[in-house]
From TrEMBL:
Source organism phylogeny: Bacteria, Bacillati, Actinomycetota, Actinomycetes, Kitasatosporales
Domain GFO/IDH/MocA-like oxidoreductase: 160-244
InterPro entries reported for this sequence: Gfo/Idh/MocA-like_OxRdtase_N (IPR000683), Gfo/Idh/MocA_oxidrdct_glycsds (IPR050463), GFO_IDH_MocA-like_dom (IPR055170), NAD(P)-bd_dom_sf (IPR036291)
Record keywords, A-Z: Oxidoreductase
PANTHER family for the chain: BCDNA.GH03377
Protein name (Swiss-Prot/TrEMBL): Gfo/Idh/MocA family protein
Organism: Streptomyces atroolivaceus
Annotated ranges, domain Gfo/Idh/MocA-like oxidoreductase N-terminal: 15-128
Length: 299
């Protein structure tokens, strides 16, 4: 449930958010979302390559921080758009500085790193929120609300695309770890929310080509999840099918506009920072998902 004020008028000062990273996702989503306001303001951008940071910051008139420490001085919250290993190395420093965190999934490249992030957030008592994109779309929320009224005994799902075959999103960490770490958090989160908490997960296949997950849920239901970033499709396919004694319930992103996610994400993060009340889609939830990913990777 949203914690944002019901009015369209933003009642607080904009949250000054610093952005770490200057890759394709920082350019395509983070920078323009944070700069759009009125809930947030892009206060600075920092990346290991200053020229890349300048390309991201320039269109919005945001300054380029000369160092990570300068970024922290310029903001009250930090958004990450970097590989998981980099996020996990820097996020505890953000928490220790008392800044809120807008985190990418997965929290880290492995369970130990993710645990360190979640522990730092909890220890310092700062607000955190995960960019689980689809969770902020009205269609997703309508699906999850309806799923909560159903008895589910089984589910099938998939998240498939061809971004790993080439292009700017075929980044080194995605090619190394494959769809399990990149797409897995999204699909496991949807199944965990729509069916019941996942208590165990097994994986077969190669995460760099195709991975099949079998999940057992707290309510006794079983679900399947197919993941691949290396199949040729005209566009990404995300679909969840729920089955039980009643009619099937289907969630499909084919016709949704992902641009509708960003204002919701921005407003809920800023509201959490200003009120001190998180949404529950936070670092602790990210650690739960990472434990499932680790369990799958070990099978």
């Amino acid at each position: 449930m949203s914690t944002a004020p019901p009015s369209d008028i933003w009642p607080y000062e904009p949250v000054r958010v610093g952005l770490v990273g200057a890759g394709p996702w920082a350019r395509a989503m983070h920078a323009r979302m944070l700069a759009a306001g009125p809930e947030t303001a892009l206060s600075a951008v920092w990346a290991r390559r200053p020229e890349a940071a300048a390309e991201v910051a320039g269109p919005y008139g945001a300054p380029v921080a000369a160092s990570f420490e300068e970024l922290l001085d310029r903001c009250e919250a930090v958004a990450f758009a970097v590989p998981p290993a980099v996020q996990a190395a820097l996020a505890p420093r953000v928490a220790a500085a008392g800044r809120a965190l807008l985190l990418e999934k997965p929290l880290g490249a492995d369970l130990d790193a993710a645990n360190a992030v979640a522990e730092a957030v909890a220890h310092h008592g700062v607000i955190s929120q995960l960019v689980l994109t689809k969770r902020y779309h009205p269609a997703t929320r309508a699906f999850l609300a309806e799923a909560a009224t159903r008895e589910v005994t089984g589910a099938r799902s998939c998240y498939l695309h061809g971004a790993f075959l080439g292009g700017e999103f075929a980044t080194s960490w995605r090619l190394e770890h494959g769809a399990l770490l990149d797409l897995g958090p999204h699909l496991l989160d949807l199944l965990d929310s729509a069916v019941a908490p996942i208590v165990s997960v097994r994986a077969t296949g190669d995460p760099r080509r195709w991975t099949e997950l079998t999940c057992e849920h707290e309510n006794g239901a079983v679900s399947q999840a197919s993941l691949s970033g290396a199949v040729r499709l005209p566009r990404a396919r995300t679909r969840v099918e729920l089955f039980g004694p009643g009619e099937e319930l289907v969630y499909d992103t084919a016709d949704i506009d992902h641009e509708e996610c960003w204002p919701v994400l921005r407003r809920e993060f800023a509201t959490a920072v200003r009120t001190g009340k998180g949404t529950g889609i936070d670092a602790a939830h990210g650690l739960h998902l990472q434990k499932l990913l680790d369990q799958a990777a070990r099978t």
